[in-house]
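Researcher: Quick test of sequence recovery. Tokens follow.
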């Protein structure tokens, strides 16, 4: 009896540590699972909170859709009726009259501008030689003084009078040449050129082999590079050689 009781007691002691080890193993596994998912409870709570927020968003979306349809309804109420044909015709007639008035004003302005331009051009032509005439007035004064001096001096002062006239002529020539570009060109003994010479008379001559200016009857002048007045000349024409 004592041996059986002792053996049974040993078996019970062995069974209790095994059960205790199993409980410890389950506790350790549970702890590891908790460590692996520390936010497990938070995820569940987030899902619970997400549902009300989604419902709130759906409500706001519905309100927005309702707000979009409201202005369209108000716009349809404020739409003005289309004008009638008579009103359109009256508007077009008013616009046409306005454009016609603008055209008439522009035409009148252009006509006045054209008249001013014609008047200005004519004035420019009429007074183009103002500077030249002003310069020539001094020469006229010199001629007047020379004539008065000749009348008072008598016949003995003919040489002095001639000298005064020469001086006046020299002053006029110098003025026109230096200020206005007037140039006198020589023609005596030059080959005849119809572009710058005007033949007044001709004479045959055995001394020339081509038409040549024999005498200058009136001086020719150039204004800068343009012929202002061709020189009037007598032309010497070569005579044909006599046959033996």
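Model:
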């Amino acid at each position: 009896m004592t041996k059986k009781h002792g053996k049974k007691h040993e078996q019970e002691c062995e069974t209790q540590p095994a059960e205790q080890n199993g409980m410890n193993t389950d506790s350790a596994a549970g702890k590891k699972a908790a460590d692996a998912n520390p936010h497990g409870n938070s995820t569940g709570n987030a899902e619970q909170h997400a549902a009300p927020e989604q419902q709130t968003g759906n409500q706001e979306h519905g309100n927005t859709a309702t707000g979009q349809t409201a202005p369209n309804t108000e716009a349809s109420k404020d739409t003005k009726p289309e004008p009638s044909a008579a009103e359109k015709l009256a508007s077009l007639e008013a616009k046409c009259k306005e454009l016609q008035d603008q055209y008439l004003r522009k035409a009148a302005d252009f006509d006045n501008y054209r008249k001013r331009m014609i008047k200005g051009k004519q004035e420019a032509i009429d007074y183009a030689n103002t500077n030249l005439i002003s310069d020539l007035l001094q020469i006229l004064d010199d001629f007047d003084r020379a004539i008065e001096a000749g009348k008072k001096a008598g016949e003995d002062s003919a040489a002095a009078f001639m000298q005064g006239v020469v001086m006046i002529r020299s002053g006029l020539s110098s003025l026109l040449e230096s200020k206005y570009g007037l140039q006198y060109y020589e023609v005596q003994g030059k080959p005849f050129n119809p572009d710058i010479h005007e033949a007044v008379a001709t004479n045959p001559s055995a001394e020339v082999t081509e038409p040549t200016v024999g005498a200058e009857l009136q001086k020719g002048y150039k204004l800068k590079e343009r012929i202002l007045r061709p020189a009037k000349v007598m032309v010497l024409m070569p005579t044909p050689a006599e046959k033996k």
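The chain is about 65% helix and 15% strand.
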